[in-house]
Write a structure and sequence with these properties.
mainly alpha; Serine Threonine Protein Phosphatase 5, Tetratricopeptide repeat; single chain; elongated
């Protein structure tokens, strides 16, 4: 870690020679980078965020942006961002240990560490520095996410998450209108408020409390009045609403995001998944089929859509709806499609065989006699 910090310092020192970016140009670059980021165009986002970082090397905001872009590229390439879309109904979509790219994770950790060092230095000079308080909270939240999803360390995750919460709690106490800071405090409230009763009771002894409703309300405020964190708040609201079975609300915010980021194929897939969770089978089928049509038509951004998983979901949904021919057809297309994996192919093959056997039985069974035939002598 010491070597990483040293390298980060050298990078920052060399960046002092980078061309300063005027504020209007910086704002335009930041807007383009965020559009790339939420449209899953991580390489383009990283390039722009690094340009912004190099032109403003003492600002932890850009270090945080660079760190998050590398981290989400890692999650995306490892299939983590897609896994939750299908985990509700299929056991082999549950998250396994993430296989990481050392370069991506090294870049993430370097930028994250640099962001923490910069914002903590600024807070030593001025503990009322609102931008530094916000940046420290974001950096610790990013670190907590990495510790939870990648390292699988619950203790480290809770420690970093609590630090993120403390920084943003300080910020909102100082400036209640710094709406972006309510995102982390709201998520923290929701998570602690969702814990089982006995565990929640034990946490009271160390001063940790939470409230689901208060957490949702806080994140709703960020989605409405936030600046930097508005899109993130909407994504989190979709997760919260779905967990609380507020399916119509989840679809509403997801439709809003899908309209803003049309190249992000994960958003329509998540809307379909919400329909499925709500038992709205026909609506789910329609959306999954539409995504497959977009893939075939070459719709921008859809070239990486997990076609094999979508075929599997459609097979399961058509089977549930009683359309065995369509179910069989989709299960048969899982193998060899983009995003396939051995467990998925094996399960699809077993289900396809079961459906084919059911179809053969249907054809073999004699048709039931009509009422007139039954009464004939």
């Amino acid at each position: 870690m010491a070597a990483a910090v040293g390298c980060a310092f050298l990078v920052m020192q060399s960046a002092a020679l980078a061309r300063p970016v005027p504020d209007p140009e910086r704002n335009a670059l930041a807007g383009r980078a965020l559009e790339n980021f939420y449209n899953l165009e991580y390489d383009q986002a990283i390039a722009l965020f690094e340009q912004l970082r190099d032109s403003d090397q003492r600002n932890p905001v850009w270090q945080n942006r660079v760190a998050l872009a590398y981290f989400y590229k890692q999650l995306y390439t490892a299939g983590v961002l897609q896994g939750d879309l299908f985990s509700a109904s299929n056991k082999f979509f549950r998250m396994k240990k993430v296989q990481t790219d050392p370069k991506l994770m090294g870049n993430f950790r370097q930028a994250n560490q640099t962001a923490l060092r910069l914002c903590e230095q600024r807070l030593k000079q001025n503990d009322k520095d609102e931008e530094a308080l916000y940046a420290c909270g974001v950096a610790y939240a990013s670190r907590a996410t990495e510790q939870g999803l990648i390292e699988r360390s619950k203790v480290d995750f809770m420690g970093s998450a609590h630090k993120a919460y403390e920084y943003h709690s300080r910020l909102v106490r100082r400036n209640p209108r710094y709406y972006d800071a309510y995102l982390i405090t709201g998520i923290y409230d929701f998570v602690l408020g969702s814990l089982p009763g006995p565990l929640k009771f034990l946490l009271l002894f160390v001063g940790l409390t939470g409230n689901k409703e208060r957490g949702v309300h806080a994140v709703e405020g960020v989605a409405q009045w936030g600046d930097q964190a508005k899109a993130d708040a909407k994504i989190m609201l979709a997760v919260m609403y779905r967990r609380e079975k507020r399916y119509a609300d989840a679809r509403r915010v997801l439709h809003d995001l899908a309209g803003a980021y049309p190249k992000n194929f994960l958003l329509p897939l998540e809307i379909a998944s919400v329909h499925r969770a709500a038992g709205e089978i026909d609506a789910a089928i329609k959306l999954y089929e539409q995504v497959l049509a977009d893939v075939r038509q070459g719709t921008a951004g859809y070239q990486e859509a997990p076609v094999a998983r979508i075929h599997y979901e459609l097979g399961a949904l058509y089977r549930q709806a009683g359309n065995l021919e369509s179910a069989r057809m989709h299960f048969s297309q899982v193998a060899g499609s983009r995003g396939s994996m051995p467990e998925l192919e094996q399960q699809s093959s077993l289900l396809q065989q079961a459906i084919e056997q059911a179809l053969r039985q249907q054809k073999a069974e004699p048709a039931a006699p009509s009422a007139g035939q039954a009464l004939a002598p």
